[in-house]
Input
Amino acid sequence: QVQLVESGGGLVQAGSSLRLSCAASGRTSRRYVMGWFRQAPGKEREFVAAIHWSAGSTYYADSVKGRFTISSDNAKNTVYLQMNSLKPEDTAIYYCAATNKSLLPGLWVLRTSYDYWGQGTQVTVSS
Output
């Protein structure tokens, strides 16, 4: 199995930046997809961004495109989410997710595509 631990969340003002980290351990591989999801109170968990470790391809939700950047450090088994120009509507618990299944890029946005989940890190953006 794979264990995921998120870090980097906090309380920031609108317009500022944060970088989240997701460290993976256990039975990891170079072919899996890792992604970020977020969930605000009373709302469904929604896709934010994903990256394929070997190909380096990325995909973003329209709501964060141009503001957020996902990247990876394969040697450290770590994925990052750089969040710029944060808005109050970005406030949520951010979860890291991973899958070792071979999936078409169109499936990366689905919660059910992922096998492993972190515990989440809180991001709060004040207006």
